[in-house]
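Researcher: Structure prediction, please.
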Amino acid sequence: CTELLAAMEAEAVAPKLRTFTPLLLAYSEVGNLDKCVWVHEKMVSHALEPTETDYVALLRVCVKTGNAERFYAFLDAFIEDMMQPGPSAWEVLKDWFSRSSFCALCAYGCSEAAQVDGRKWTITEGTVSKDGVCSVTGDQLQSLELAPAVEKALLDKVEQLVRPRLDFTVRCSLGTEWDGTGLNSVCSDVAFGGSSGGFSYEQIASMVEHYEAQSKKVLLLLHQRRTEDEQVPPEHRSLVAQWRTRGVMYNCQTGNNDDWYWLYAAVKLGGRTLVVSNDEMRDHHFQMIHDRALARWKERHQVHYQVHGRRVEVEEPPPFSARPQRVGETWHFPSRDGGDGEEDDAPPAGKSSGANSSLWLCVQQEAGPH
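Model: Predicted structure follows.
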């Protein structure tokens, strides 16, 4: 395999994940940490994103060799890339922290991993409330936003895709007229089909009223055909004219995909901008981005909705991130429902948030001497 990889690189043939994963699994199985690190570095050098299977193999070889420095380095990368660990990840985490609690690895110089000031690890399964409070420790889980550098990289990627599709005027108006409002704004993809499956001006009005009642600034993104007088039913023309006059509506140009508009506007605005959309962003337009940062961004910014007549029900992101995180000296790992598939995306906001419905793995250090 190493010879094949060298030959591919010599011929400038870009390897794929399937080139590396079998090699990584084999080296992990025999406990060859150096070779596993080498394979991982090769993956990174080719801009390939490790899957959960790859990360579990890397963590497993660290357990076998007792290398704390590498384990926590890979763990940091794992929790950044994987939203919700599957059963195999839980297994290797339990192996590490339970073995550490018996100090079985101290011969490898792992005092930092095994114990801190002589304190051992305790592993407990619990739940997290809808407000983000751990049932085991009482810790308040945090809302994990994208790091500024990661958010900028995501915006750059979106802009690269949008630039050929949205003209300069559109980008300027979406990026400057609304700039600075991200801390308290809502970007609504309102080309939606409501509860009845059809386009509804009344439902859009209900959504606008719902968020403006919370003193949020709303941006509606509508196809132009939905706002031209001859296309708008007479009873709704004054409503559309009001949206236009108030500056809450922006029209997508003919021939453009509205997805690009609201994604660009929402990421550009930053802050706590919310996107009201039931679009799970899995079609080919979003596959062109193929960035795990988009999944993390969705987890904190996407709002799902239901409209029943004039009554609006929204499912906003919970006040905490259903992602692995460390609070103080305690690790919190959510579980992924539905088996051990390679699911990298965030669960739909409000639909599988990790609150109450799922178990969490809580790894804490026992109290130190007083």
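Model: The first strand starts at residue 121 and ends at 126.
Researcher: Thanks, that helps.
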